[in-house]
Design goal:
7 strands; about 140 residues; about 0% helix; 3-stranded antiparallel beta sheet
């Protein structure tokens, strides 16, 4: 049995074409039918919002991506679609891999953001399904 996490040998460009709106990204040509989610690398050309979420989610996403590069995860729907958001034409979202083998995600993920800057915080993860063996935060 595999790990459920699969990486591409080369990144896939899944950058939306519209700015400032959540846009559907159909990745059915890049991931197999049993894929349950995508792992992406987000790049913000300037301080702004670059994020992904499951199709149909109402999650607001990150307010700003200040670090320029960040990795993220989005659950796929049955048609292998997720939603992506960029602020400027220089922003990018690349697919680096996908999950399968029973891996799952949330439609509206819990918020585990850091609440106090420059300090370590303990986060208790209580929303895991029975039998879960790992988590991507």
């Amino acid at each position: 049995m595999g790990s459920g996490i699969n990486f591409f040998t080369a990144e896939k460009d899944w950058t939306p074409t519209s700015l400032g709106v959540w846009q559907d990204r159909d990745v059915s040509a890049d991931v197999p039918a049993d894929a349950t989610g995508v792992i992406v690398r987000c790049y913000a050309a300037a301080d702004g919002k670059v994020d992904v979420r499951p199709n149909g989610s109402t999650a607001a996403g990150w307010d700003k991506l200040i670090q320029r590069h960040a990795y993220n995860f989005a659950k796929l729907d049955a048609s292998r679609i997720f939603e992506a958001y960029i602020t400027t034409s220089g922003d990018k979202i690349w697919g680096v891999g996908y999950t399968s083998d029973g891996s799952d995600g949330f439609l509206n993920p819990p918020d585990y953001r850091v609440t106090t800057l420059n300090t370590w915080e303990t986060k208790t993860i209580t929303e895991l399904p029975d039998g879960a063996t790992g988590v991507i935060v």
